[in-house]
């Protein structure tokens, strides 16, 4: 078996983890507001195809990312209207959203199969990028990698130290009590769902514009479901989500490198390893109990309450 370069392995880990990290952060905010949106995969794949199509036609990856975020947020508003206004079941609606996103992306993406995405330059940070070992690992990535880390810090600060974060958590913990205090529960949840959709769209666009970069039907390959698992694994805490995303991203990169190096382990086992780890984590969490889960998670809010 050929040797694996550990520096390139760790650097690739950060790239592979970014789409999952973005989607998981968005879903965490949604669930903190007491809403369970299982449509992350559908929003990610929609963001992937819209971002790729806009990027190819405009020649700008930045514009592609912006439109992908808007597409993810727009799709999430369908979910928000059905669950928060029409009071539909959140689990069934989320699953329907995923199926809708997969079908829509397949339709939009057909003309773009085989086309290369526009370039997205990496940031070689002066001096820091030249540091042995640490330079290639930490300081030679594209802007979205660093933006995702900034969003982690921003979400943590928002939820912990701001009035808006306190209201969001209050709505998620007990929507009836929050409503009695005068907070607009539905409005807060709409905003949280829109943020989650935008983040999922950004994560999907990162896959099609940077990580691959081309359009392939179903290219998110279950990343949305992994993001959902990470939210639970991380007990709804932003910094744990960062660690969880890097864990799953690392397993994905490792198995790809093992395949390329000619590992004696069957390809099928290597390919399923990230998902096996996801299942294992969920089993462990189910035994421990969902400590930290918002009290109103998945419950329907009636304004008359």
From TrEMBL:
<feature type="transmembrane region" description="Helical">
    <location>
        <begin position="144"/>
        <end position="168"/>
    </location>
</feature>
<feature type="transmembrane region" description="Helical">
    <location>
        <begin position="6"/>
        <end position="26"/>
    </location>
</feature>
<keyword id="KW-1133">Transmembrane helix</keyword>
<feature type="transmembrane region" description="Helical">
    <location>
        <begin position="241"/>
        <end position="260"/>
    </location>
</feature>
<feature type="transmembrane region" description="Helical">
    <location>
        <begin position="215"/>
        <end position="234"/>
    </location>
</feature>
<feature type="transmembrane region" description="Helical">
    <location>
        <begin position="188"/>
        <end position="209"/>
    </location>
</feature>
<protein>
    <submittedName>
        <fullName>ABC transporter permease</fullName>
    </submittedName>
</protein>
<keyword id="KW-0472">Membrane</keyword>
<feature type="transmembrane region" description="Helical">
    <location>
        <begin position="272"/>
        <end position="289"/>
    </location>
</feature>
<feature type="transmembrane region" description="Helical">
    <location>
        <begin position="94"/>
        <end position="113"/>
    </location>
</feature>
<keyword id="KW-0812">Transmembrane</keyword>
<keyword id="KW-1003">Cell membrane</keyword>
<dbReference type="Pfam" id="PF02653">
    <property type="entry name" value="BPD_transp_2"/>
</dbReference>
<feature type="transmembrane region" description="Helical">
    <location>
        <begin position="62"/>
        <end position="82"/>
    </location>
</feature>
<feature type="transmembrane region" description="Helical">
    <location>
        <begin position="38"/>
        <end position="56"/>
    </location>
</feature>
<dbReference type="InterPro" id="IPR001851">
    <property type="entry name" value="ABC_transp_permease"/>
</dbReference>
């Amino acid at each position: 078996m050929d040797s694996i370069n550990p520096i390139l392995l760790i650097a690739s880990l950060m790239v592979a983890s970014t789409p999952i990290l973005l989607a998981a952060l968005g879903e965490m905010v949604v669930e903190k507001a007491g809403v369970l949106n299982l449509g992350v995969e559908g929003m990610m794949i929609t963001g992937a195809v819209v971002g790729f199509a806009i990027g190819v036609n405009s020649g700008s990856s930045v514009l592609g990312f912006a439109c992908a975020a808007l597409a993810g947020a727009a799709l999430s508003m369908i979910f928000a209207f059905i669950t928060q206004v029409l009071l539909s079941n959140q689990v069934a609606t989320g699953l329907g959203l995923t199926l809708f996103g997969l079908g829509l992306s397949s339709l939009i993406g057909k003309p773009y199969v085989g086309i290369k995405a526009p370039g997205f330059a990496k940031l070689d940070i002066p001096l820091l990028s030249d540091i042995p070992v640490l330079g290639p690992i930490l300081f030679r990535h594209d802007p979205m990698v660093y933006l995702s880390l900034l969003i982690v810090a921003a979400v943590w600060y928002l939820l912990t130290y701001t009035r808006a974060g306190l209201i969001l958590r209050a709505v998620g913990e007990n929507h009836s009590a929050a409503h009695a205090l005068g907070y607009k529960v539905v409005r807060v949840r709409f905003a949280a769902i829109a943020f989650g959709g935008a983040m999922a769209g950004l994560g999907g666009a990162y896959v099609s514009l940077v990580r691959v970069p081309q359009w392939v039907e179903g290219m998110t390959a279950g990343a949305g479901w992994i993001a959902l698992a990470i939210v639970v694994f991380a007990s709804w805490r932003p910094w744990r989500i960062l660690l969880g995303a890097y864990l799953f991203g690392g397993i994905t990169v490792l198995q790809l490198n093992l395949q390329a190096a000619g590992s004696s382990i069957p390809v099928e086992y290597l390919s399923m390893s990230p998902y096996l780890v996801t299942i294992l984590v969920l089993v462990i969490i189910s035994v421990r109990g969902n400590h930290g889960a918002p009290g109103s998670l998945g419950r329907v809010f009636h304004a008359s309450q």
